[in-house]
Amino acid sequence: MELRHLRYFIAVADNRNFTVAARELGISQPPLSQQIQDLEMELGATLLRRTSRHVELTAAGRDFLEQARAILAHVKRAKEQVRAIDSGNIGLVNIGATGSVLPGPLARLITDFNEQYPKAAVRIHEMGPEEQLAALLVHRIDVAFIRRPRHDAALIAEMAWREAVGVALPVSHPLATAPQIALRDLKDQNFVFLRLSDSRFARYLQDCCIDAGFIPRISHEVVESYSLTSLVAAGLGVALVPERTGRLTHLGFVYRPLAGPAPVADVEMIYRPVRSNVAELFLTLARNSFARPAEPPRKETKPSKGAVERRLKAKSGRAEIKKKGPDKASFD
Question: Which of 127, 156, 167, 287 could form a disulfide with 131 if both were Cys (CB 3.0 to 4.6 A apart)?
Answer without folding.
Answer: 127
